[in-house]
Write a structure and sequence with these properties.
The complex is a heterodimer.
Chain A (H helix, E strand, L loop, with lengths): L3 H14 L7 H30 L5 H34 L13 H17 L9 H27 L1 H13 L8
Chain B lengths: L3 H8 L3 H23 L2 H18 L6 H25 L8 H11 L8 H12 L4 H12 L4 H8 L3 H22 L1
Helix pairs in contact in B: 1-2, 2-3, 2-4, 2-6, 3-4, 4-8, 5-6, 7-9, 8-9
Classes of the chains: A mainly alpha, B mainly alpha.
Chain lengths: ~180, ~180
């Protein structure tokens, strides 16, 4: 009696020996070439459309003009960047740092600050003055103190007519007038 | 073995050489396709599509040794697609006469050979319950006589998976052979 593997091997042998053959190989060949030609043709059509749309870039004078224009644009861009960088550099040297977290100053204080800033700008022509927050505070405090002392002095002079006369006399002698802050 | 020179010439777009390549490639591509699908027309379609794919992707090939494996891979993948389509529209109906035919051909002795139609019937009845992968592994390994390494490269599955699929395919076919023959 045949075993299972023997039967299996016989069937396999039968199948192995029977190699499938193409009944009409020419048909396959013809069909393949036909399909490839169709694909090739559609590719050519596509390249024709692309040439029609973008073919002008291959015209000599158009290409040269485009190159020139692009170079000019690049040069303008570089020049512009240089100018901007220079300007930023100048501005960064003139920056005054003021801490934003500080309590808002009263209106008269701000006026004083602005006046001080304008005066300092007029007096010091140097472009690169950097004042720290601490220095600003010290300056305002000393100005306030000076104003208080000046007022006290004024009151003192107003309260003593003799002293006032003497000071006026001295000022006339020295050819000087009262200075208003 | 297909000459690398021929492949090189085909890459350059030589249609006449491609005809030669189709002529050399079609038989073994058809053999695998036919044995996997068991249908002449579908196998022809697969061969045609394979040849068109080869034409389109020929530049990827570097050595002629790789060429055959690459072709088999394309054929197997196209067969998978066909089998997937066929799953939606199954057309094979098992016929009891097929077992009679196998028995007759085996009894004829070693000189017996099958016609395409008969091969189609036998493969159909033997592999009807196999999965696509099992079918591919069985055809490549047992009918085309390839090693597990080659089958693994062509199908893209691991060697152990090839062995497992082959074991299940052989078992299923042996059971059928034992039962009906």
């Amino acid at each position: 009696m045949k075993t299972e593997s023997e039967k299996y091997n016989k069937v396999l042998d039968l199948l192995r020996k029977s190699i499938p053959e193409i009944d009409s190989p020419e048909d396959i060949e013809r069909e393949v070439i036909k399909r490839i030609a169709t694909i090739h043709k559609s590719r050519l059509n596509l390249s024709g459309v692309i040439d029609f749309l973008f073919g002008w870039i291959y015209i000599g004078w158009v290409r040269r003009s485009l190159i020139t224009v692009s170079m000019i644009l690049v040069l303008i861009f570089i020049y512009q960047q240089g100018v901007i960088l220079k300007r930023i550099d100048v501005l960064s040297r003139r920056t005054i740092v003021i801490d934003k977290e500080n309590a808002p100053a009263p209106a008269d204080e701000i006026e004083k600050m602005l006046m001080m800033y304008r005066n300092s700008g007029r007096r010091f022509s140097s472009k690169n003055i950097t004042i720290s927050e601490r220095q600003m505070k010290e300056l305002f405090e000393s100005v306030n103190e000076l104003q208080i002392k000046y007022k006290d002095l004024e009151n003192l002079i107003e309260g003593d007519p003799e002293l006032k006369k003497m000071i006026e006399k001295k000022l006339i002698e020295n050819n000087r007038t009262k200075i208003n802050l | 073995m297909i000459d690398l020179k021929l492949i090189e010439e085909c890459r350059e777009g030589n249609f006449n050489n491609f005809r030669k390549l189709v002529e050399l490639t079609s038989p073994f591509a058809y053999s695998v396709a036919f044995r996997m699908l068991g249908n002449q027309d579908q196998a022809k379609d697969v061969v045609q599509e394979t040849m068109v794919t080869i034409w389109q992707k020929l530049k990827k090939i570097k050595t002629s040794q790789v060429y055959k494996t690459w072709i088999y891979r394309i054929v197997v993948n196209k067969c998978y697609d066909e089998m997937r389509k066929r799953k939606r529209n199954p057309e094979f109906v098992a016929d009891d006469n097929t077992w009679e035919l196998i028995a007759n051909r085996i009894s004829e002795g070693p000189s017996a050979a099958l016609e395409n139609r008969e091969t189609s019937q036998i493969i159909g009845i033997l592999t009807e319950r196999l999965s696509s992968k099992q079918k591919a592994v069985f055809v490549l390994s047992d009918l085309e006589g390839m090693s597990n390494d080659e089958v693994s490269k062509i199908t893209g599955i691991s060697k152990s998976a090839v062995k497992a699929n082959l074991y299940h395919a052989r078992k299923s076919i042996s059971e059928k052979v034992e039962k009906y023959l």
